[in-house]
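Design job #97: recover the sequence.
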């Protein structure tokens, strides 16, 4: 399966069914994130039910604290 994450092509070698699984695969599941899936911003409770398909596009932004 091939998807785009933040403008870059990503080839997934293992099957990924949901956005929640994708975040786990990318080691991002514990971060505060905003995810845009095919130009639609997802709420956190939608990550478990939103399906990932070949050719999907994601923009993932996470917050960094500092001072």
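Job complete. Output follows.
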């Amino acid at each position: 399966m091939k998807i785009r994450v933040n403008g870059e092509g990503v080839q997934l070698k293992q099957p990924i069914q949901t956005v929640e699984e994708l975040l786990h695969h990318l080691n991002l599941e514990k971060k505060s994130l905003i995810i845009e899936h095919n130009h639609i911003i997802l709420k956190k409770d939608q990550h478990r039910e939103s399906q990932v398909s070949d050719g999907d596009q994601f923009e993932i932004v996470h917050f960094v604290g500092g001072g």
